[in-house]
Amino acid sequence: MGTALLGVVATLIATLVAAVVVTGLVRAGRREARAERTRLAEEERRQARRSLDAVWAMDDREFEEYIAELCRRDGCTGVKRVGGAGDLGADVIGWLPDGRKIVIQCKRYAKHRTVGSRDIQTFNGTARAEHGADVPLFVASCVFTGPARTFAARQHLTLIDVNLLGFWNSGTTLTSFLDLDIRRSGTNRRLRPDHD
User: SS3 string of 147-188?
Assistant: First the structure.
């Protein structure tokens, strides 16, 4: 009878251990499911932010903060939104992953507008001289005119227009845009306004 009792006790212990393991696995599965739901909700939020319609709906300050957020996503450090009255052309300042200082001018315009060479010339006059930019970057929610692109290319300014902004929003890293030939990247054709 001692052997039978030992068998029953061993079975009870094995059953108890199995119940504890199964309970732990069920709880872990639930935690993973919650984490996955949270991750999917966060990804959905990011996708909504990446939508160019969402970009055009932002006000100037939100657009500047969004550009700062994209810089942070791509490994830039010390990123600050500094835009406002008297900003001397700097809306976002930070440092690229390789340590170069980046100074960004942001223009959130309606998609059918353009940024001309006058805006680019003004930014060029302050980005390096006033802010010490190693990489002056001009980001717009519309397109740049042909003369603006030509001037920017001569002055080694990086331009990100609405077309390239779509790629940046979708995960292309900022550093991928820094060596593009501005005269050939994107387009200077205006988009049609929403109201026809």
Answer: HHHHHHHHHCCEEECHHHHHHHHCCCCHHHHCCCCCCCCCCC
